Amino acid sequence: MKRVILLLSLVLGGCSLLSAQEVGRWSIGLSGLSGSAGPSLHAVKITETKLMPSVHYRLFGDLSLGIALDLPLSKPKKFENRVLSTSAVELQLRQGLSLYKGLKISLTAVGMVGTTGAYRSELGGPWWRGPHKNIEYRWLVGLRPSIAYAFGTHWGLELGYGFVGYRSQKELGHTAYLPGTSKDETYPKGAWGFDAGASWANSLRLGLTYSF
């Protein structure tokens, strides 16, 4: 009988240890961002608002692998506000560094593939011929910084801004056809460097995460 009790104790203890190790292995998140989608064209501001749901799996320590969706929410509000609709999927490899209790900074390696288009507006202009029907593919690879604060056992807040790396198009805001311009001017080539555009999901991002 004592052996049975001892065996049960070991099994229960092992299960408890395994469960403890698995806490926080998975995390889901939802971030929101809004900002400029590109430079102003003919005094017309191009903006975009979007949500980014994500799922991450902690590999070991503070290193996690995840996937995120880049979902547009923008709707035109007035003549001065044009909307660029972009969507994408991205892979993320994130390394965190703890600074203080519940506070840490992270650097995320990102690989994004997506589309840009179509433009939407309430009122058309001489250079804007209704919705822009040409869907263009785009991609980027690089690094994004962020800072996170955990409150409670499972919940956390995350704040991020900016990107450093390579993107396939320098300015997505130029994908609309402008009469009198060449294709090279309308569809600029890719670029290295810093970016904070909303269309690339690199503007100020505020998110909520849940770990389990």
Structure report:
- By secondary structure, the protein is mainly β.
- It has helices at residues 2-22, 183-186, and strands at residues 26-36, 45-60, 63-72, 81-100, 103-120, 136-151, 155-160, 163-167, 191-195, 205-211.
- Strands 1, 2, 3, 4, 5, 6, 7, 8, 9 and 10 form a ten-stranded mixed β-sheet that branches.
- The radius of gyration is 22 Å and the shape is globular.
- It starts with a helix and ends with a strand.
Class inferred from helices and paired strands: mainly beta
Average pLDDT rating: 75
- Unreliable spans are 3-8, 10-22, 120-132, 173-179
State the helical fraction: 10-25%
Work out the radius of gyration. Answer: 22 Å
Q: What would the keywords be for this entry?
A:
212 residues; mainly beta; ten-stranded mixed beta sheet; 2 helices; 54% strand; disordered N terminus
Can you describe this structure in just a few lines?
The chain is mainly β.
Please outline the helices and strands.
Blueprint: H1 2-22, E1 26-36, E2 45-60, E3 63-72, E4 81-100, E5 103-120, E6 136-151, E7 155-160, E8 163-167, H2 183-186, E9 191-195, E10 205-211
Parallel strand pairs: 2-4
Antiparallel strand pairs: 1-2, 1-10, 2-3, 3-4, 4-5, 5-6, 6-7, 6-8, 7-10, 8-9
